[in-house]
Amino acid sequence: MSTFVRIALAILVGASLPLVGGAPAAVPLPLCDVLPGLTLDTWKGAGVTPGADDQWDDDANWSLGIAPVRLSNPYVCVPAGGLPVIRAGQDANLVALDVAPTGVLQVEQGGRLYLSGGQLAPSKIQGRVELDGATLSGPAKVDVTGTLLLHSLGPSSETTLTTRECAYLPAPFPPGEGVCTPGVPLPGTTGQVVVEDQGIVDVSGGEVNLGDQYQLSVHGLLRVHDGGSVAADHGTRLELLPHTGLTPGTGTLRFEDDGDYLEGRNDFGISALGTVVNQGQIIKSGGTGTSLVTGTYSQPSPGAVTVRSGTLLLPSGSATPATVSAGGSYGSGRCLVPRQPGCQPQTFDLDQQNVQFRVPTTDQSGASVTVQELTTASSPGDIGLPVEAHATGLSATTADPAVLSLRYDERLLGGRGWTSVNVFHRADGTSAYVALPPCLAGGAPPSGQPACVDRRGLAGSSRNVFDAEGPGNAPDVVMVVRTVATSRWVAR
């Protein structure tokens, strides 16, 4: 049993409606819960009382006659229909917040919302909280059954979720907030948003920061769209989890265009990337470009991946097959520069090879695709490590084959370019890797061969790639294979 008890109430606030005799009557607004030891200060301004304004710091807009900014331990209720606004330069430092269904709290550019209550005083978003270039911070647990909108307004007005304001913002900071010491991880409780089965976290407009070991536990939907991306600092955690209620389903990270879940900052001495646990599903549903997921990735059952459009890249692939639609691509990759939305994956010292597998555009049924970088070399002459790129249900022809792209960093190549690199294939049920021939002029493999290396010199053929990263001036290499067969592949 929980260590606290929530009691649903209907609270009579100062809104009124005229009766026949002209006397006002209190309007019962459904609503917010009681937390032991805390006194509710309920919004009765815009959206509740006709003619009232939306000013957060106006005493007249609150049931206690005192705005939260002038209370020592404020617990705020935004009732049904309430429309308060926290504006630039305003700091709302609350123990807890409860936004009832159809209530909307807007935090405008430069506004700050700090929630300090832990497990004993969690906050609830049953309606909607909108952060527009604003910050939600604090060590609170926030339960979302409604919508938390995270909308960035550009590089100088990013929306941020962070445990401590000092990790991202200038002083002044909320009373009692811990000190941010460069190179030293957060010693105490982290902030956490729990997205319940029907809840939504909506990311749009630009880069949204997930900072200072903040946690997102998603049973509902994490939606990334309209230019949105997430930059997750080292030490943060994203979990996509099964539903907790009676309705079947799982938490979902859905990319509706070419957004990303990228590496963020490393300011507090945590070397490992943020954690991504996919026990739900990751879907790329739109966009013809690339979406990357960066982090320390795991995919326990029943975790799933679906690519309906464009390209989706995970940190090193997964042993669990992904469902990939016609023309879609799936694979592994990482950006060189953290916090760079729209970056193209490349190889560098921390990620020296990657792989992409594209399903033929004529394969209208799609395929179940496994792409993962293996951990054991096949021979001393291997460049990097073998990869598994395997598909079941694949419909590929020599006229419209599957396309496999293997990229290797210059550190693995010893000065070699693409013309001196060969690709070998190992079919299912065999132990020997066999060298692939070059493709014919039209791109098909020679007669009797299931696959070939594209050495035709076209834009999408095997090639050298020069970038500014690296210890020398040698190129990276991309080897392109056109194939009607799958399984394991290695370059030598």
| Largest sheet properties | 15 strands, mixed
Using only CA atoms, what is the Rg?
27 Å
- Backbone structural class: mainly beta
Which of globular, elongated, flat, extended, rod-shaped describes the shape? elongated
How would you characterize the overall build of this protein?
The chain contains 1 helix and 44 strands. It is an all-beta fold and 492 residues long. Among the domains are: 133-171 and 187-345; 356-492, no CATH class. A 15-stranded mixed β-sheet has the order 7-10-13-16-19-22-25-28-31-33-36-37-44-39-40, with no helix packed on it. A hairpin with a 5-residue loop joins strand 2 and strand 3 (24-29). Residues 1-30 have low confidence and may be disordered.
Question: What's the short version?
Answer:
Helices cover 1% and strands 39% of the residues.
What features would you highlight for this structure?
single chain; 492 residues; mainly beta; 15-stranded mixed sheet; ten-stranded parallel sheet; 39% strand
List the helices and strands and how they pair.
Blueprint (H helix, E strand, L loop, with lengths): L6 E2 L2 E8 L5 E6 L3 E2 L5 E3 L32 E4 L6 E2 L4 E4 L1 E4 L4 E4 L4 E4 L7 E3 L2 E5 L2 E3 L3 E4 L2 E5 L7 E4 L29 E4 L4 E5 L2 E5 L3 E4 L2 E4 L4 E4 L4 E4 L11 E4 L5 E3 L11 E4 L2 E4 L5 E3 L3 E3 L5 E4 L3 E4 L2 E8 L4 E4 L20 E6 L8 E7 L9 E10 L9 E7 L1 H4 L9 E4 L7 E2 L15 E3 L9 E3 L10 E8 L3 E5 L1
Parallel strand pairs: 5-6, 6-9, 7-10, 8-11, 9-12, 10-13, 11-14, 12-15, 13-16, 14-17, 15-18, 16-19, 17-20, 18-21, 19-22, 20-23, 21-24, 22-25, 23-26, 24-27, 25-28, 27-30, 28-31, 29-32, 31-33, 32-34
Antiparallel strand pairs: 1-4, 2-3, 33-36, 34-35, 35-38, 36-37, 37-44, 38-43, 39-40, 39-44, 41-43, 42-43
